[in-house]
Each structure stands twice: as structure tokens, then as C-alpha cells.
Amino acid sequence: MTGIISLEFDDPITQVAVVWFPAGVAVAAFLISQRSGWPLLFAVLLTTRIYLDFHWRHDWASTLVHSCLALSAAICIAWLVRRFSRRNDYLHAIVLWIIATVVVCGVEAALTGTWLSFTRDVPLQRLLWVTWIANITGVIFATIAIMSLLHDDLNACRSGWLARLTGATAFVLMCLSTWFIFGVNSHWLKPDVTDSAGSAMNFALACIPIIFCVVVSVTWAGRGATLALLTLATLVIHNTDNGQGPFFLKGLNPDEPLLLAQCYLCATALLIVFLRVLSKSARRYDLDTGRAAGEGVMYRLHPESGAIYWDDNLREVLGIEAPVLSTFNDIIDRVHPKDREKLRRHWSIQQRRQGGASLTFRITAQGSDTRVICDNTPGLMADSTGEVIVGNWQISHYK
């Protein structure tokens, strides 16, 4: 879908798309998939890319060169991020991803531009500039939109009707302000764009949708951020492609307003990402386990009978009532299959007699929401029924 949309902005002479979101889709696909599946994923994406280019009547040589270079760049970016990013350091991973994107896309643009300059009568400098910016903006915007959707932090979403109403109001205001600023020629409010004062006014007005977009992402978390970004991109690119909006300045080449629009969208997406990272960093949590600050929920587990008793905070942690998790087997059924065995060992009497320990594991909460729990068990205690394991559950910051 993103390939079909992007190819609508394809230059028939250079066969270079000014808007190229499939670059970000490919990077996101490699980031979320296992490395063992990369060859198959590469083949699928390559086949799709070749089919789309052939449908748009691109020659086979250019199609193969473009496709192989683009997907090789996506693999390089994903490999660099997964190889050199530090565990649980989100800011480091994002900065590394941005640097890798700029450098790798620059190399890809140089190779693609050199190929096209030999095969077509087009200046290398123009090809290099357009290809580089289109790839960078496509990778940054599309990757952020997809990763925000797939790695939505549901716990960060503000609950309550007031937060939901605030998000809905901000979303409507974002749509209206974007439509007005980019789609309506109101000379009584917006001076002529050829005027220096008019240009400044238009750029100042363009910041208004960004504010509303950020509010939506804060109140509606990752899925809201994806919805807001995609809606904003649709309105901005559609109107800019129709010759409207604040990015039409004197002296610009025909393709440059669209490039400016994509830079505008990327700046918005990056702002949202950095705000989410800062909000996560502001929360207090243990660096080893990711355990968030707070009381959590206390429990008493009777190993012989398998019965478990909770205090009144279980609903705050998992969003479910205590009777749903009244036995050891009830908990195991909700724990991620890869974490079940280590939880069994963690709660075994032999392990608990050795002293306290902490464990992080994944469990299905309300609906299909999977959360990471940090279990802190000081050891064994005894009551009238025998030995009892007493512990505490808290939401983990890590995923």
C-alpha cells in the first residue's frame, strides 16, 4: 500500500519517487523480525518492489538496482541498530537509528544517483539530493508510525473519560487546523506566501497541528500517535501535492515543497518519540529489572495446594479481579510460554529456601494486553497450613 501511494509521486524521467515510505516499512519489518527470517523477508519485499516498479513501467535494470540497494540499506540500518544499541537504553537506540539512517541512506543515494546519472541525462547533484532526503524522511516517518503501533505502551495511555475527551478534541483540532493551514487560501488571515512576512506567518501557523498531534500522542499513547501521524501526513502531503500550503516559496524546484513537507512530518514524528522517551525516563524504576516505583500487589502462595491469595491491588496491576488468578495453574495459563518454566523454578520450594530473588516475566492481563511483571520474593514463611511463599508483583518498565 505504501509503495502504491509513493509511486504516485514518481518522476517519470529519473524514476525516483520524491515520497518513499516503503523504506521505513522495510526497516520496521527487519527490526521486528528475527534474523533467521531476514532472507525470506528480503525475497518477499524484493518481489513486491519489482512488481510495483514493473507495473509503473520502469525498466528492468533500474528496477533491480533500485530494489536491491533500497532493501540492502534497510537491512544495514536494522542490523546496526540491533547490533550496537544498548539493552533497555531507548534514547541510545533512537539516536543510533537516526545516525545509521542518515549515513546508510547517504551511501544508497550516492550509489543510486551514480547509476541513474550514467543511464539517464540527469545531473548527479539533483538525483543525490532528492534520493537522500526522500529515503531519510521515508525511513524516519514510516518506522516511527509502525513501531508506535506495534509497541504501544498501553500502561502509558491516560485512562479516564477526561483524557479520552482531551485526545479526541485534540485530534479534531489537529485535522481542522491542518486543513485550514494547508488547504485553505485565506488571504485575510494568511498574507501572500511570496511576501517575507507571509512566509513567516505560514511557517508559524504550521506549528499549530504539531501541538495537537503531540497532545493526541500523550493522551492516546502509541496507537493514538500512529493515527495522528498518518492523518497529519495524509492532509499535508495531499494539499502540498496540489500546490497548497506553507511550503511553496519563491525559488524552490518543483519537487522541493514535497521534500519540505516530509521534513515537517519527520520533525513531528521525532518530537513525539523523544517526548515518549523522556516521559519513560522520568519514571522511577530499577535498572536491572525495570520494576516501576509503587506498592504493586502482594500475594501469598501455598505451594502444596497451589492456592494464591492477593491483596486489593491486583486490578490496578493487571486489570483483572483476584478470583481469576486464584491458583498457581491460573497464573501459569496466562504466562508467556517461554517464561513458564522459569516461573515454576522461581516459585519452587527448593529455590525459595535459598533466599530472596527477583524475576521478570510476561503475562496476559485484561483482554490480549501482555505486560511484563517483576516478581520480588524474599523467601519462605510458615503459617498454620505449612510453608508459604510471600512476594510482590509490580509492573516492569521493560518489554
TrEMBL record:
It is a multi-pass membrane protein. Keywords: Cell membrane, Membrane, Transmembrane, Transmembrane helix. GO terms for cellular component: plasma membrane. The keyword Membrane applies. Signal peptide: none annotated. The chain crosses the membrane at residues 12-31, 60-81, 93-115, 127-150, 162-184, 196-215, 220-238, 258-278. It is found in: Cell membrane. Residues 298-356 form the PAS domain. It holds the Pfam family MASE1. InterPro entries: MASE1, PAS, PAS_fold_3. The keyword Aminoacyl-tRNA synthetase does not apply. It comes from the Bacteria. This is PAS domain-containing protein. The lineage of its organism: Bacteria, Pseudomonadati, Pseudomonadota, Gammaproteobacteria, Pseudomonadales.
